[in-house]
Amino acid sequence: MTTAPAELPPPAPGRLRLLSYNVRSLRDDRRALVRVIRACAPDLVCVQESPRYWRPEGQAGRLARRTGTVILAGGGRAAAGPLLLGRPGIRVAAVHDRLLPKTRGLHARGFATALVDLPGAAPFTVTSCHLSLDADERRRQFDLLAGQLRHAELGVIAGDFNEHPDGPGWRSLAGRLQDGHVVAPWGGEMTSVPENPYQRLDAVFATPGIEVLACGVPHGLPGVTGADLRAATDHLPVLAVLQLPPG
After folding, report:
1. Distance between CA 183 and CA 187 in Å, rounded?
2. Distance between CA 194 and CA 228 in Å, rounded?
3. Which residue, 20, 31, 121, 174, shows the most beta carbons closer than 10 Å to its own?
């Protein structure tokens, strides 16, 4: 396990913290989950497995309020689980959520995507995704992710890809985008399972033109405890610090 440095790159114009986190339908310790998210102090949160069936909008809203964020896109049935949260004041110029073609007998999947404007920075898209456990369906979903980038020159894709970095879909995406932890490794690498991290399923990717300053599992970040990481859900979060070019 890698220990994160005590400090991340400091705030600056056009700089943001993005957190990607599979929350397993909020079935685990919600207080621990909230503490982890708040300690990471993200500007944007790409959530996977937001509740889809039992009052999903209300549950997403409560998660947003408890973490000091607001809902930007996705959630519940709108994107079949992926959800985008952001700190108050972030401007969303457009929402481009997408439900994906569904294979009989498998879970519905989707993308939560927003076009975001930060003061002084170029507009960019951010997409939260949670890809299929089925290899054939997952490869098709990897191919569809590129379409979520068409709304702006700059974009970020983050999520639970249910594939290892040596998989064909991951390799294809990493051939076009920057794999954040490879470009600027920080903190931990493995994201599953929290009790014994041994595989990397979760990641943050960015288009060329966005500078990745740091990216990884926030082990050792002030306020993020091992006990909370183990209790919050069945994945570890990925925190990235990204620098956007001026608008």
Report:
1. 13
2. 10
3. 20
